[in-house]
């Protein structure tokens, strides 16, 4: 089950059904099933507090992903996304907000699939997988 919430902001996500289908398909293309995935859309301050509390990072970020479960074949977890940070990044990158939001969302899903982005090579692989997934979205 893929669910969408908002915390400390007002945010309405469109095309939820298409987004759910897309996420399930992206996971299936990696040989995985989706379990419970919760997207929580929030403010910079809310995400900064989580970043400080759980990762001991005192920096703004657009996304934090917390995997859940021990089953390697079923992905699940909580994905927190700062809507203001995504908006700002979209402007800086010259992207539409929705396109940047979808990239960030699938970035979190790919983390649940086991992809990492700490090294240069991992970042390149993550970007390639994001691009592949984004190319398949028909929103």
CATH top level assignment: Alpha Beta
Q: What is the CATH architecture annotation? A: 3-Layer(aba) Sandwich
Biggest sheet details: 4 strands, mixed
Assign the CATH superfamily.
Metalloproteases ("zincins"), catalytic domain
* Tally of strands: 4
Mean pLDDT: 95
Helices, by number, come to 5
Give the helix/strand class. alpha/beta
Helix content: 40-55%
What is the topology, as strand order, of the major beta sheet? 1-2-4-3
Beta-strand residue percentage: 15-25%
- Please indicate the count of domains: 1
- CATH names the topology as Collagenase (Catalytic Domain)
Features of the shown structure:
single chain; 139 residues; alpha/beta; Collagenase (Catalytic Domain); 4-stranded mixed β-sheet; 5 helices; 4 strands; globular
Describe the model.
49% of the residues lie in helices and 21% in strands. The chain has 139 residues and is α/β, with parallel strands linked by helices. The chain has a four-stranded mixed sheet with strand order 1-2-4-3, with helices on both faces. The longest helix is centred in the C-terminal third of the chain and has 16 residues, at 97-112.
């Amino acid at each position: 089950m893929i669910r969408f919430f908002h915390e400390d902001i007002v945010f309405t996500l469109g095309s939820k059904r298409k987004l759910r289908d897309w996420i399930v398909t992206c996971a299936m293309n990696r040989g995985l099933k989706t379990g419970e995935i919760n997207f929580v859309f929030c403010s910079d301050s809310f995400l900064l507090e989580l970043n400080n509390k759980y990762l001991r990072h005192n920096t703004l970020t657009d996304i934090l992903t917390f995997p859940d479960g021990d089953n390697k074949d079923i992905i699940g977890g909580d994905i927190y996304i700062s809507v203001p940070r995504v908006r700002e990044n979209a402007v800086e990158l010259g992207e539409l907000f929705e396109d940047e939001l979808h990239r960030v969302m699938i970035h979190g899903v790919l983390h649940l699939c086991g992809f990492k982005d700490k090294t240069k090579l991992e970042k390149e692989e993550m970007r390639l997988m994001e691009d592949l997934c984004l190319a398949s979205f028909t929103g």
